[in-house]
Amino acid sequence: MAIAKFGRLAKRSYKSYGFCVKLTAVVILGLCFVFVWSVFSPSKFSVTSQRETFDDFAEPVSANGRVTDSGVHFNKNELKNGKESSSEKKGQILEEKDKKRVKGSPPLKSGNMHKDQKNVPKGKKQGDKSPRHTKQAGEQKIPEKERSESDDLQEEKQDEDVNGSEEDTENGEANLNEEGEGVQGDTDLANALDLDEEGVEKVEDDSGDSTNSKKNKKKKLGPLFDPKAHYSWKLCSTRSKHNYIPCIDIESSSGKLQSYRHHERSCPKTSVLCLVPLPLDGYGTPVKWPESKVKILYKNVAHPKLSAFVKSQNWVVEAGEYLAFPQNQSALKGGIQHYLESIEEMVPDIEWGNNIRVVLDVGCTDSSFVASLLEKNVLALTLGLKDDLVDLAQLALERGFPAVVSPLATRRLPFPSGVFDALHCSECSISWHSNGGRLLLEMNRILRPGGYFILSSKHDSIEIEEAMSKLTASICWNILADKSDEVSDIDVKIYQKPESNDIYELRRKKVPPLCKENENPDAAWYASIKNCLHSIPSSIEERGTEWPEGWPKRLETFPDWINNREKLIAESEHWKAIVNNSYLTGMGIDWSSIRNVMDMKAINGGFAAALSQQKVWVMNVVPVHAPDTVPIIYERGLIGIYHDWCESFGSYPRSYDLLHADHLFSRLKNRCKHPVVIVVEMDRILRPGGWAIIRDKVEILDPLEGILRSLHWEIRLTFGKDREGILCAQKTGWRP
Name one GO cellular component term (predicted). Predict the structure, then answer.
């Protein structure tokens, strides 16, 4: 009995022990299987790849909550989750969407693109990018905010994602207007419209790793605008009221602040999503060009300090409901024509409208200088300074003259180096000799080698004269003329920038020193002024070694330093066809009322060149994240500027008659926290009755049309084909 009992116990323990052994073996084999699977399985099952796909779940524009400072209330609809089982199913959806699109609409009649946004999945989160974006990482410093190296790399990756997501933009856009009644004669798009986009992609793709670019191109981004968002607008409440310039003006309407404007460009912490009110007495239809040269509506530029200023001047007088500008009258005694003739007499090499085409007028005193030069085929850009509380730059814009507003203190102006043929400063109240001549060094940077600096002022003190003489000698400027004009009762000095580096080496004191070779002279967006002299280009392949051709030959002449000249020529011909066959005849725009035009995403100035025969001027804006083509624009005798469209532009409200945006929005994915701020900014700088021509993907234009309708803009034309579309809208005088 005992033996049998012992045997049964032994058998039970053996079974228990065997079960444990088997269980342990199964666990070990399972772990080995998991390890082998994780090593040899496809990347789509890896932890890293799954983490990357989290970016596909976005915080849409219509995020929950309320933007307290904006006046725009967003209602977020429930996010629909779903995955397609195969790429074939996605292709079928795209084909069905293309079939549903409207093929055209007649001009001057409101048209609707088919709202197919409900099939578009929620997209990638809009990056909360700092507005202190620099044009070239590593070469431009960002004041007040420091970014880590990893942040810069992440932003570069986001830019590549944006570019990659649009690799088929050109192919679709090429067929945009081959058919349809709404846009006349736009068949040239089939051959030419993809030129600018291909050029951009080539430059941007070359800047990064090709392997990473291919990976990024496969990554899909969500919609730029939430198609289900609801917008309710309210007016801005700021000290500047109807003249509010975000990033320039101080927003606070309370407190005892002595200054109305920031010392440097400083944007609000929260996105500006409110609408700037109209002037107190409303905004009347602007006087058409060229009559606007001699009179403008007073109420359109009303300002508390303007009335007192007008009473003290002779070049502008109040005439009923208008402000009148008597011919040949200026702040200078003797008239502006005498002033210009005296400059030509002092320096015969200055030939207005021939070798001198692009001029920067620093510190707006009156517009007579710009107006008179315009008659000589000189394109003069007025730089309105931040302390111009009378808003004289606004008067220049209302009259139809180019102008921008920018502080001039410690940061560089948003222009590339060596692009202006001449700089002019007449009673601009700038102490050029202060702070070691820092501001004069900035003038030296943007002035073309061999260019002219014209300085006219009332009789300065002996100390200022000596300081200025010492400073200009230290940067090797040659003084060509120093004359006291008895008629104008001012002193006129004309300096010339050197054309070679040899003279720099002859200086006894190398102060200021030459800049380091790795210091980029074109880095201008939020970049500090450098206390050094940039070397003058010496090789024929470098920009600045030769003076451009005379105007108008300059517009179609491409020097040796410009690459892909054949492509630029083809692009110019392309835009000529689009403008002549479509924009001028097929949009229903009254071009006699168009004077101030902005190309919001210019590349080489092709659009502006196509309008050169029209009575308009074009501000070519090159986004800071795009390839730097602003020097090419100036080389052609046009004007341009750097800008980040996540921030407000440096201009007054109601500055432009027409805005042109060619694939601007599709290039801004993942750059702005609230992309709708771009639309709000367009509403700010566009005049009531002004027009906007927007070319982009249909998936962007559909919700954009809804936003414009919420702003009570009138949609004049919509056209879509092969995922590409065009939208033409007109702003009304509506305010909430």
Answer: trans-Golgi network
CATH of the domain at 707: 3.40.50.150
CA-to-CA separations, 238 to 234, 235, 249, 407, 581, in angstroms, rounded: 13, 9, 9, 19, 44
Question: What is the identity of the amino acid at 614?
Answer: Q
Residue found under tokens 């003058």:
536
* Domain span holding position 185: 103-230+563-730
Beta-strand pair 478-485/447-457: unpaired
Query: Would you say residue 52 lies in a domain?
Result: no
In this structure, is residue 16 part of a structural domain? no
Token pair for 89 = 């199913």
Mean pLDDT of 646-668: 95
Domain for residue 304, yes or no?
no
- Whole-prediction pTM value? 0.75
- Name the token pair of 647: 């921030």
Euclidean distance between CA atoms 557 and 559, whole angstroms: 6
Q: How crowded is the C-beta side of 356, counted as CA atoms within 13 Å?
A: 25
Residue 147: inside a domain: yes
**Between vectors from CA 363 to CA 358 and to CA 365, what angle results, nearest 5°?**
105
Strand partners, 598: 619, 659
CA-wise closest residue to 296 among 310, 284, 306, 308: 284
Q: How many domains is the chain partitioned into structurally?
A: 1
- Sequence length of the chain is 736
Q: pLDDT at residue 673 above 60?
A: yes
pLDDT at 72: 40
pLDDT for 459:
75
